[in-house]
Design brief:
The chain is of the alpha+beta class and 197 residues long. The chain folds into two domains: 58 residues; 101 residues, H-NOX domain (Alpha-Beta Complex), CATH 3.90.1520.10. The protein has a four-stranded antiparallel beta sheet, with helices on one face. Strands 4-5 form a two-stranded antiparallel sheet. Helix 1 crosses helix 2, helix 2 packs across helix 3 and helix 4 packs parallel to helix 8. The radius of gyration is 17 Å and the shape is globular. The chain starts with a helix and ends in a 6-residue tail after the last helix.
């Protein structure tokens, strides 16, 4: 797992649950170091051990914890680079959804070692979409569910999402059924918190 993701997880835990919880989770996961470097890559096993330790300490389901982390990624300033990459996709939530098919290639240009899912958007009708998600890290569709919800808030859009998690051949091939009920307010892209006008 790329250090950017692990560092983001560290920021999430420290901000929401406190530095002591982070240190306890690292100790429980038998990690030698309590800090991740953003430009390094780490064995996926370390990240899984850390997430398992957090679920034990916090008494939370893995999917719930990862969904909250996904929301945190786009609602706080710790991972502004990820948020800016996503906001580059357009001025409305629908334009953002339509741009997701390009996120993989854009992210690889900026950070070649970053683990990025593949997306394919299927338009059902006006305001109705199915987003297909493929990622070789199992169980991380929950992160993207939180991210999709957080971005809807960022755009001022009212949405409903059904997440259908599916694993095939050692990878996630999840589906997100998205209904955009309200597109958002004018100029939301410029007036959102933490983003320059």
């Amino acid at each position: 797992m790329h250090g950017t993701i692990n560092r983001g997880l560290q920021g999430y835990v420290c901000e929401i649950f406190g530095a002591e919880t982070w240190e306890d989770a690292c100790a429980l996961a038998e990690l030698a170091n309590f800090n991740f470097e953003t430009m390094l890559s780490y064995d996926d096993v370390l990240t899984d051990r850390l997430i398992n330790a957090l679920t034990q300490l916090l008494g939370r389901e893995r999917a719930d914890l990862l969904e909250d982390f996904g929301t945190f990624v786009v609602s706080e300033n710790h991972l502004q680079s990820v948020r800016k990459l996503l906001r580059f996709g357009g001025e409305t939530y629908v334009e953002f959804l339509q741009s997701l098919e390009d996120v993989h290639d854009r992210a690889k240009i900026a950070l070649p070692d970053l683990d990025v899912p593949l997306f394919e958007l299927e338009t059902q009708s006006e305001g109705q979409f199915i987003l297909h998600y493929e990622f070789d890290k199992l169980g991380f569709g929950a992160v993207f569910l939180g991210l999709l919800r957080g971005m809807a808030d960022d755009y001022g859009a009212l949405i409903l999402i059904d997440h259908i998690p599916v694993a095939e051949n050692g990878k996630d091939v999840d589906r997100f059924e998205i209904s955009v009920l309200q597109l958002g307010w004018p100029d939301a892209v410029n007036n959102s918190a933490g983003m320059p006008a």
